[in-house]
Prior knowledge:
Elements: E1 19-29, E2 32-43, E3 47-51, H1 58-65, E4 73-80, E5 83-85, E6 94-97, H2 109-117, H3 128-134, H4 150-162, E7 168-172, H5 180-193, E8 198-202, H6 206-209, E9 214-217
Parallel strand pairs: 3-8, 3-9, 6-7, 7-8
Antiparallel strand pairs: 1-2, 1-4, 4-5
Amino acid sequence: MPTTVTTTIQIATQTKLDNIILTDAGKRFNREWIYRHCNYQFEQGKTYAITGPNGSGKSTLLQAIAGSMQLSEGAIVWNNKNGSIEPEQIYKQLAITAPYLELVEEMSAKEFLEFHSQFKPLVADISIDEILSIIGLDKTANKQIRYFSSGMKQRVKLAQAIFSDVPILLLDEPCTNLDATGYALYHQLIENYCSNKLIVVSSNDKQEFDFCEEVLKIVDYK
Length: 222
């Protein structure tokens, strides 16, 4: 069982982003439009869900928000108090977990988080050993990830995203392969460590986004 923690971590980099604005945004592959004419504003400190049927384009929109996929039309702007952040720099402001992102399975969980922290610093007020204890993997911290169950791997994915010291958290089907205990852990992590972050969850599972303040339905932009 994961350790129960009630401390809320304040993210030092949160002042670096104010909002994300989509203006007439659209994406197509070949001649098929995945979404189109999307006008939406994501505000720092608020929580959002992107919902829609399987294959409707939820992940595609999330990748555009992450700056990893260019729009076919329209614009996306990441704003802070000094103006806008360049698209090639937005990766510094966000962390993401998704089924299509792989772990380095030759590493242990501890080694992976240490490796990850070299590229994206983790929150300063908590150690990697403490993180592993919180997600219930302290006893397997030095075991290669290749020998983990799918649920254990998902816990590592959540940890590397949630404990990154960034203002934006993007979660694509974040409870994939988790059991009931894992769902409870997910909600505990969001509540305790994501205060004031801009969170966007892409999912059809109400349990994954029931805390979100706003819901963007991808079918509204077809």
